[in-house]
Each structure stands twice: as structure tokens, then as C-alpha cells.
Design goal:
Length: about 260
């Protein structure tokens, strides 16, 4: 844990925002977990769109309270337009000093959460070779047109495959291919008919629901309030403080 001689910069968790009311409830519960892990650290929430408070409003309120500095940690799982453009531009418009941390993924803690959610949904590691050869997992993500987002998701898929001992195929709800049904069919064409869908979403919402509905069998829940998520938010916060001059795009691939 980082030790401060003065008041620490505020941690501002930057969520995307969703029309699904479950998403906001989930994010607030996650922030409560972060506060419990780091008492005394000011933890706040800002959204890119769709939900209040919006990030610029959160930063303006912190400034009005006399907060000197804040670290913005994206509650996002890969690089993309929001991480590269939206959040830095909002941060640049703030009066207080800000640093933008890396997105959450890829990171082994996400694999911990993905594995746990699959296990909760009923996934069991194949006990024999025949079952292993018939098994596979689809990693269902939101999707992005940014190729670096795809790179990050692919890396998470490889880490999860190493953990599970079966192939893991990334799939996307929008803006990229393959879709979840396409990935399921691709695994079936390889003789892998025991397929689970791992939900690579931070909270419930339309994309997570649609991807789960396309699962031929087990579909795990979003990562949501799994303890690893709270630990990872704090890790990215601490990482940003240790390397303030490193651009967030470079930090995104660092564990």
C-alpha cells in the first residue's frame, strides 16, 4: 500500500455509463469495496456519458471543495477511444491537477475474476483429455474499432486460456468481429462443443445480456463487484502515482 505524508490525490473511477439501472448500482457497490480497502482515500465516481455525475461535473465539484489533485482510473477493460481521447480531454478541462491511469486490462487480476465468475456459473476444469479436447470458452467483450483494444482483449484471452487449459476465443458485442455466435460456431467446427461464455464486462447491461443469451451453455456474470476488481482499481491508481510521466497508453499493457 502506498504511504502518503500529505493528503492523497482523490481517486476518480471513470465509468462509461449505461441506461441499465443495474450498472450504476453495481459501480457504486464496487466503489464501496474500494473505500473499504483503502480507508482515508477519497473515492469518487464520474461517467463519460449517460449517467450522473458526468466526469467534468465530478472534477468541478472536487475543485470547488479545494481538492488539489486527482487520479482518474478508467473502469474500462482495454484501450480505445474513451481512454485515448475522451477521458484525457475531460481531464484537460479541469482546474485541478489530474493524472489518467491505464485501463484495467489486460491484467492477471482480471483473469482471477473471470475464472471465479465462470466457476460460479458452473464451469469445471475438464478432468480428462477427451473432455478437455471438446471444451472451449468464448470471451465476450464490448468491442471497439481501435486495434489496440482488440490487442488487449486478445491478451486477456490468452491469459485466461493458460488458466483454464482450453482455448479461449475473443468475441464482441459491437464494432468488431467475431460475434459470440460466430465464435461458438468456430469452436464447434474444431470439435469443441462444450462451450462456455465468459462475460468480459464490468457491469450488467445490454451487451452483457445479449452475449449471455447467445451462450450454448454456461454464461458467467459480469465482473462487477468481484474483489479483484477493487484491488485492480487501486493498483492502477498506485501505478499512475509511481509513473506520472508515462502516458496511459503505454501503461495499459503493464501489469
Amino acid at each position: 500500500m502506498t504511504t502518503y505524508t500529505t493528503n492523497p490525490p482523490a481517486l476518480v473511477v471513470v465509468a462509461h455509463g449505461s441506461r441499465d439501472p443495474r450498472a450504476l448500482r453495481t459501480v457504486r457497490q464496487l466503489l464501496d469495496r474500494v473505500r473499504a480497502l483503502r480507508p482515508g482515500l477519497p473515492v469518487h465516481l464520474g461517467h463519460i456519458e449517460l449517467n450522473a455525475p458526468l466526469l467534468p461535473d465530478t472534477l468541478a465539484e472536487l475543485d470547488a471543495r479545494g481538492t488539489d489533485a486527482a487520479v482518474l482510473v478508467p473502469l474500462l477493460l482495454s484501450r480505445g477511444y474513451h481512454v485515448k481521447r475522451d477521458i484525457p480531454e475531460m481531464a484537460a478541462g479541469a482546474r485541478l491537477h489530474t493524472r489518467v491511469a491505464a485501463p484495467l486490462g489486460p491484467h492477471p487480476l482480471l483473469v482471477d475474476a473471470l475464472h471465479a465468475r465462470l466457476t460460479e456459473a458452473g464451469w469445471r476444469t475438464p478432468a480428462d483429455g477427451a473432455t478437455r479436447r471438446a471444451s472451449g470458452v468464448v470471451l465476450a467483450a464490448a468491442g471497439s474499432r481501435d486495434p489496440e483494444s482488440r490487442t488487449d482483449t486478445n491478451r486477456t484471452a490468452r491469459l485466461l486460456a493458460d488458466r483454464l487449459g482450453v482455448p479461449v476465443v475473443p468475441a464482441y458485442a459491437s464494432a468488431a468481429s467475431p460475434t459470440v455466435p460466430d465464435a461458438v460456431r468456430a469452436l464447434a467446427a474444431r470439435g469443441r462443443h462444450r462451450v462456455a461464455v465468459a462475460s468480459y464486462f464490468t457491469a450488467p447491461g445490454r451487451f452483457a445480456t445479449e452475449c449471455a443469451a447467445a451462450a450454448p451453455g454456461i454464461a458467467s456474470a459480469p465482473l462487477a463487484t468481484h474483489p479483484a476488481m477493487a484491488h485492480l482499481l487501486l493498483h492502477r491508481y498506485d501505478q499512475a502515482l509511481r509513473t506520472p510521466s508515462t502516458p496511459p497508453l503505454e501503461l495499459a499493457s503493464a501489469f
